[in-house]
Amino acid sequence: MRVVTPRPAQTDWPRPPSCLRADQLRLPPDGARITVAGLVILRQRPGTAKGVIFLTLEDETGTVNIIVWRKLYERYRRAVIAGRMLRVTGRLQSEGDVIHVIAEVIEDISPLLDQLLAPAPEPAPKHAPEALSPDTQTG
Question: OB domain: which residues (predicted)?
């Protein structure tokens, strides 16, 4: 038996957080404007799709399917082609078990990945107790 979580009405959907995780995509109602982010694991441009691009992003909780219409692709071409990690804002499209985000804004946030490789900052040195000068030592 499959458990179906009821969706809130469009008017009940609060302003979303900066990015939803993949496992939260059932929370907003169909048509809600949301933002997601993740590593680009798949880019598809089928010949039969009339210029539509399909992206799959992955975050720590799962995958998100993104639809990029041709006109939007022309605007964000560089990010779509070269981005290793993207943040996408768009409209949620949900029908049954199939969930997509129809892209409206695409941002290449790949430079954030480089921060993962940066060495951790050195911890602040612990102050050693000040040594007593010979004239203050007791003996």
Answer: 34-109
